[in-house]
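Table S2 (text version). Query chain:
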Amino acid sequence: MSNDWDNKVRTTIEGFPEPHRQELLQLWNEWLETNPESPLYKSWATFSSGADDEEALYTERRVYFKRVRNDLRDIEVPLKGWQKVAKVLAAVASVFLVLFLALSRVFRATE
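Corresponding structure-token output:
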């Protein structure tokens, strides 16, 4: 695996809250020792699912596992042009939605 990929994912993991950060870094290092094969995001998903609680409907750890998987997928599978445009449009739409909701709340409060 390229060193910059490792650094990018480590930076992501180091941004996680403390109870999960050390666990994920340890799990990340264990996964790297297995010499994962491409596609890396699928390999990580398979490896991390063994450490996840499959019985639980929702766990915070699972969210962080998926965040690492998504980072790996973004690195390995670059977005196509139309996907980049769609991502930008979604970001702009979400900003307008937040502004609209904030303004409607302000106007409702002034009534």
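Notes on Table S2: Residues 81-110 form the longest helix (30 residues). The CA atoms of residues 31 and 47 lie 7 Å apart.
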